[in-house]
Amino acid sequence: MTTSAPAGLLVAELAAAAGVGPDTIGYDERAGLLAPPPRTSGGYRRFPPETVDRPRFIQGCQRLGCACATSATCCPFGTTECARARQIRLPGI
């Protein structure tokens, strides 16, 4: 009897899809910037496919000089912009 693994991306797959290194995924998870994903019976993390956007978003904020992208209190998972990004956003964009 075989059991299917939970759907989702392994750390390396998520990192490749997001264009970051696997260490970045681990750091963002420990920092509270990524929601803890479900694990397989073997203990592997399986991130939902929609998680791909989150590391990209965090890096974009960092490129804009938004230090809050490293703070889970300003940029908790599930948000799509940080306080600094709201401040510098151009009206109508």
Contiguous helical run count: 4
Query: What general form does the structure show?
Result: elongated
Which radius of gyration do the C-alpha atoms yield?
15 Å
- End-to-end separation in angstroms reads 53 Å
**Which stretches of 5+ consecutive residues score pLDDT under 50?**
none
The residue-averaged pLDDT reads: 77
CATH architecture: Orthogonal Bundle
From the 3D structure, determine the CATH topology.
Multidrug-efflux Transporter Regulator, Chain: A, Domain 2
**How many separate domains make up the residues?**
1
Broad structural category: mainly alpha
Order of helices and strands: HHHH
Task: Classify the helix fraction into a percent range.
Answer: 25-40%
Describe the structure.
The chain is mostly helical. The protein has a single domain, classed as Multidrug-efflux Transporter Regulator, Chain: A, Domain 2 (Orthogonal Bundle). Helices cover 37% and strands 0% of the residues. The protein has four helices and no strands. The chain has helices at 11-18, 22-30, 53-63, 83-88.
How does the SSE layout of this entry go?
Layout: H1 11-18, H2 22-30, H3 53-63, H4 83-88
Helix pairs in contact: 1-2
